[in-house]
Structure prediction request, 88 residues.
Amino acid sequence: MKLKASDLNLIVKLADRGVKIAKSLNINLSRGDLAVPLAECHLAGVGLDLKRLAAFKNGDFGHDIFGIRRNFVDGKMKNCFLPRCAKL
Prediction:
């Protein structure tokens, strides 16, 4: 499965928002630190509703984006984590 250009553009915007939130918490992350796990998770079969994620308030947004970064390892979700924006 390939990533659509529209999904990639949205993932970059989501990552930029995550970087701003992290910075406000004195956490230093790059766009790639967040965009890569998001894209990999989306492509690996978890399937994310990216538009829904973009509409989340910061609490739910942070849960998903930082949770994905922390728990999506080697192509699989670990620690029973399920993003709130997962397509079920």
Summary: The longest strand covers residues 72-73. The mean pLDDT is 94.
